[in-house]
Write a structure and sequence with these properties.
It contains eleven helices and eight strands. It is an alpha/beta fold. It has one domain: Rossmann fold (3-Layer(aba) Sandwich), CATH 3.40.50.
Length: about 240
Amino acid sequence: MRCIALFSVKGGVGKTALAVNLAHASATLSGRRTLLWDLDAQGAATWLLKVEARAGAKARKGLAEAELAELVQPTAYPNLHVLAADRSLRRLEADLAGEGEKRLKKALKSLENRYDRVILDCPPGLTELADQLFRAADLIVVPLIPSPLSTRALAQLTEHLATEMKSPPPVMPVFSMADRRKALHRGALAAQPDWPVIPYAAAVEAMTVTRTPLLAGRISPAAAALAGLWASVERRLTA
């Protein structure tokens, strides 16, 4: 089992859409037994995959008792399951304060015989929860809007990892919502030509209406870019 954390220092960069599409690509393009764990209390990833938290379910309690498997639900797509977000996650940060630094990693270990890939949709911000997610991850995928502020946020993350962890997982920056009509975006893309690019697309925004991953619909430039990104992630995980 390999774990990929989708993380951003700040919101509004397309992180959740990327998490949903990469999880779908893992399950369908690679045929991997895939779990998308929605750790953002807003539950956007859960909603986009047309899943609802079970009545009375508490992801926070499941984490505390290392009984995550009981909370997992299937989706409409083969090989893709979701560990849904619920309101209890709002108090997860307080639970982790003062706890062992690998609590989340230990909880994930209980799923290692069930899944090949786990995608973590992380809430934004450099918090205690983020630190635990970093320790559980084999790769951190960081979506960035092409701008100087995003580059600064990435620098903050890499500095934080170097300070807080002896052997941090590799970081994979991804330009998200890139619009080549904008000079600022073109300049940022030119400065980092090796970073993957997901173009700005109305189809991505339409996911909030269709609640369908891009690769499950009509082929588009954005869908092709997402398939390419997943191929790059797989190469990093299997190298």
